[in-house]
Amino acid sequence: MEGVKSFLVTFALLAFASTLASASDPSSLQDFCVALNSTKHSVFVNGKFCEDPKLATADDFFFSGLDKAGNTSNAVGSRVTPVNVDQIPGLNTLGISLARIDYAPYGGLNPPHTHPRASEILVVAKGTLFVGFVTSNPENRFFAKTLKTGDVFVFPVGLIHFQANIGETNAIAFAGLSSQNPGVITIANAVFGSNPPIIPDVLAKAFKLDKKVVEFLQTQF
Q1: Of all helices (H) and strands (E), which one includes residue 186?
Q2: Strand, coil or helix: what is 1?
Q3: Sheet harboring 142-147: ordered strands across?
Q4: 128: number of CA atoms within 13 Å, CB side?
Q5: Side-chain half-sphere of 100: how many Cα atoms within 13 Å?
Q6: For residue 205, how far is the Cα from the chain centroid?
Q7: Spatial distance between the Cα atoms of 41 and 61, rounded to a whole number of angstroms
Q8: What Å distances lie between residue 182 and 33, 124, 135, 141, CA to CA?
Q9: Residue 17 pLDDT more than 80?
Q10: Fewer CB atoms inside 10 A, N or C side of the chain?
Q11: Rounded Cα–Cα distance for residues 164 and 9 (Å)
């Protein structure tokens, strides 16, 4: 009996230690969440508030429209149609989302960007795409591939990546992302189109450009 008690105590201690070892802060579902010492002024949660499950309906888990092409008549020639927690409330806390990307022919581009909170798996439904991502410093290795219909490619979380249509027809891809709110930072928009603008001297030195070139680029975003 004593041996059984000793085993149970040891097992309980190991289980507790294992729990501590694997504990971590919850992943962020937004850019930041400023702590408050009081709820007097506002309350915000990491993600969305939860509805009483008894009030949920099938529509909370439904979205219609990914069969419709996005309008690619814009400067980059692409359109992303997101399906995240804002479109499907039932995605809250599930850690997944989806997107359709349409690309105009002859160079339609989903420009270099990152998803700070998600990895992405992309499948080409139509057309031919040139895709790639760059690893973090100091290696900055560039991984790229030409994808055709039915091909799949993965972009690891947080890394800069892009897709470009190198075909003569419209292209379509669908992306699965490992967050209900993956976020997106389009590099050129963030750097040259921030609000308020980043001081041109900073960007000129960082990109090794003439200050006037930087000031011109800032007018384009």
Answers
A1: strand 185-186
A2: coil
A3: 142-147, 129-134, 160-165, 109-114, 185-186
A4: 6
A5: 16
A6: 29
A7: 32
A8: 15, 20, 18, 23
A9: no
A10: N
A11: 59
The closest of 175, 66, 157 to 110, measured between CA atoms, is: 175
Among the residues of the chain, which ranges form H helices? 2-22, 187-192, 200-207, 211-218
Tell which residue, 63, 81, 82, 60, has the closest CA to residue 71: 81
Mean pLDDT within 9-38 = 55
Of the pLDDT bands very low, low, confident and very high (cuts 50, 70, 90), residue 37 is low
Q: At how many degrees (to 10) do helices 211-218 and 200-207 cross?
A: 110
Backbone angles phi, psi at 165, to 5 degrees: -80, 115
Cα 180 to Cα 40: distance, rounded to the nearest angstrom: 28
Torsion angles phi and psi, residue 67, rounded to 5: -80, -10
pLDDT for 32 equals: 66
User: Any bridge partners for residue 185, and if so which?
Assistant: 114
Write down the pTM of the prediction.
0.83
**Collapsing DSSP states into helix, strand and coil, what is residue 212?**
helix
